[in-house]
Amino acid sequence: MWSRFFHLTVDAVLISTILASVKRLTGIQPATSKIKNKDVRGFADQYLGVGEYVLDATILYLSHSSYFERRR
């Protein structure tokens, strides 16, 4: 039971991170303003915020790693 819950949580975070990457690269983002229920809209914004946080943390970690380099 816990392994399934953990797996679904990791999948949800990965999807949120992919959506944050799409937002960062293209400017296209989910239209949470169209969600009428403010509680659900708040949850969706928090969910997308988790993806932003994970993306930022990953970029920070990889930028300090000797296995990755920035090309311009």
Automatic annotation (TrEMBL):
Organism: Hesseltinella vesiculosa
Keywords assigned by UniProt, alphabetized: Signal
Signal peptide: 1-20
Protein name: DUF1748-domain-containing protein
Pfam families assigned to the protein according to its UniProt record, in alphabetical order: Mitofissin (PF08520)
Coiled coil: none
GO cellular component terms, A-Z: cytoplasm
